[in-house]
Amino acid sequence: MRRWGAVMLFCTARRAVALLAPRRRQPTRLYSLPGASDYHVPVLGNECIDWLARDDGVFVDCTLGGGGHSSLLLDKVGEKAKVIGLDRDRDAIQAASARIRDARFSTIEGVFDEGLQRAFQEHGKFTGVLMDLGVSSHQIDDAERGFSTRFDGPLDMRMGASGKTALDLINDLDAKGLARLLRQNADEPHASRIAKAVKSASLTTTSDLASIVSESIPKTSPPHLDAKRRSKAVARVFQALRIEVNDELGALDRALELLPSVVAEGGRVVVLAYHSLEDRRVKRFFRDGKFRGDAARDAYGNRLTPFRPLTRKAETASDEEVAANPRARSARLRVAERTDWSPS
Ligand SMILES: C[S@@+](CC[C@H](N)C(=O)[O-])C[C@H]1O[C@@H](n2cnc3c(N)ncnc32)[C@H](O)[C@@H]1O
């Protein structure tokens, strides 16, 4: 009897300890992040919308993708607001239009500057503009699009349907030109070796490119670090080509330069960048109103800029978000507000 009593006491004590102990938090899962869909999981979803949403006005989501950020925005804005989703990829326009059934929402297919011009002609000045740069998970996961380093597909990498493919680009450049591109767009330390190897091979698919790049990297030990270095080089080469094929930096520059004339005074621009080439441009433009040289000044030395940065340092994703969505790791969020000054 005594033994039973002791066992009962032990069990009760254990249950009490379990109840009192702080609960271990469940890890956040990818698809439970705000705005997530099979198409794409938005990065910093709530943060972007908190900066952007107002009750009324015209909002342009320049990078509609799966419509994750747009749906979060529609949840926050008022009855009379309008949200225009812009994307150069028809898949994105179709997927987001099927997902979002809302009279306040419409779409435009096109590149940033042409889409912004069309939205401005139809709706007037904007209260908010969002740019979540780069490619969507859907684009990466569809082997036929040629963005993935993991799946075999044609060397395409175009976000839209027109223009040169990655294979056209490789064929058009000589080894020096290709090396320059790898250095400029991805800081590739083995640019010359890789470019020579790529130009002397016959390649047509993403797997061909990935193995040529991987084999051209000099061997080091230990083997597991060697494999990591090779896969990083492959990722950088794919990134460099993708940026060029889609003229990503040119499109971003043209869009930023257009914003002062299409964003209303007090309106906000929210940009999520995933690599330093883009983030640096956004930071400079928000601070100085141009990409080179100092901001204009009035007779008293006051800076004259079309935007006022609202984020002193770029915001980044929480550890929890990064654990659920590793893509969020490199995200840099910057926000600026339109001032009353306009460049002449
Ligand atoms: C990172 S995804 C956006 C995902 C979206 N925020 C969501 O929540 O689903 C970027 C999207 O922007 C589009 N895009 C990138 N650059 C573009 C440009 N210059 N003009 C138009 N669309 C562009 C891509 O086609 C892609 O669908």
From TrEMBL:
Alphabetized Gene3D superfamilies for the sequence: Putative methyltransferase TM0872, insert domain (1.10.150.170), Vaccinia Virus protein VP39 (3.40.50.150)
Keyword set includes Phosphoprotein: no
Keywords annotated in UniProt: Methyltransferase, S-adenosyl-L-methionine, Signal, Transferase
Residue ranges with Basic and acidic residues bias: 334-344
Signal sequence region: 1-18
Region span, Disordered: 309-344
GO molecular function ontology, one term from the record: rRNA (cytosine-N4-)-methyltransferase activity
A GO term from the CC aspect: cytoplasm
Single biological process term from Gene Ontology: rRNA base methylation
Keyword S-adenosyl-L-methionine: yes
Family: Belongs to the methyltransferase superfamily. RsmH family.
NCBIfam families for the chain: 16S rRNA (cytosine(1402)-N(4))-methyltransferase RsmH
Official protein name in the record: Uncharacterized protein
